[in-house]
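User:
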Amino acid sequence: MGISGDAFAGPGNPCGKNPCAAKNPCGVKNPCGANPCAANPCAKGQNKPIRNTHITDYKKLVTMGERLWNDEKLGTSGLSCMSCHADHEHLNLNKVKGWPHFVKMTGDIVTLDQMVNYCMINPIAGDPLDPNSIEMTAMTAYYRQYAASFKKK
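Assistant: Predicted structure:
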């Protein structure tokens, strides 16, 4: 027993008959026709910056990140990121398929920025980095390049 096209048009189906088919109140003037995003809202230069200081040279950014990655003075424990992450095994690259992901020691799914701050607060015993800071951007840029260097081998 098949279902015909008008089997859904019964009195129990409110969608069986389109109440707007005869006279569509939106047909004459569509209130959604004028797209408020049609003009780029950032084109006028009125955009608010993410941070007050900018860096436009990626190479310098990665160099800054490498310096921070190796800086034992970021906290009070005498550790740096490199103290724990000096090799492929301790970066868990065989397990990490991208961010965010579940990290057992945090007991949570975290982004790369959150993982950097977890390490800043715990093993390094320092202050967390502002997620919008150049320092955080540099640390994550260096991490990506550093991790990629192991994947190439």
